[in-house]
């Protein structure tokens, strides 16, 4: 059947072909998306995984912390590297004592100090335990970060520090695509309000979320042996707490 024989087939073909056009791509990124963002505002999301009642979802949770350095030169990056390197033994010992951490690493990416870790349980408790073990040592790192001086000493500003870290943890895009619909949309009823979601808006919702949250973890991440907590691993290895 020809395009003319099918109603609107020519229009569908035209729309589908537009995605390959550089002009359309520029207009979409610089005109259409900002218009959508103005028409349907979306919140900047907190980082990290959302709260869940499923026990399996509270094991090996991901934290991808991005901390912009004050000094955005090679000197600033070197200072950040030295702040970690000079306290590495204390940091590793403190993470051992936290007891819920599977792994953690510090990475400098462009002008950001990044801490990437996998932990068990609640985010707030993780940060509280981290500060209890490493607050004094980690203050030297926080002092190099934009707005970090407001958090020092972290042990005396624990609640504010938890929120500070949460805001700088990378937003995690939901594993289920339909969870994107209306999530974080200002003034829009929540997804569980009984309103039927329009599945055709999933792509638009994703674009709006990434417009408001340019850094994102794609899903909750792969977790090897997600049923094994750090406590069980330590017990099997005879490490204890």
What can be said about this structure in brief?
With 241 residues, the protein is of the alpha+beta class.
Could you name the key traits of this structure?
241 residues, alpha+beta, Alpha-Beta Plaits, 3-stranded antiparallel sheet, two-stranded parallel sheet, 8 helices, 13% strand, globular
Write structural notes for this entry.
- The chain is globular and about 70 Å long.
- It is an alpha+beta fold and 241 residues long.
- Helix 4 packs antiparallel against helix 5.
- The longest helix has 20 residues, at 123-142.
- The chain has helices at residues 9-18, 22-39, 74-85, 88-98, 123-142, 158-168, 202-212, 230-236, and strands spanning 61-68, 101-109, 112-119, 171-173, 216-218.
- It starts with 8 loop residues before the first helix and ends in a 5-residue tail after the last helix.
- It has a three-stranded antiparallel sheet with strand order 1-3-2. It has a two-stranded parallel sheet with strand order 4-5.
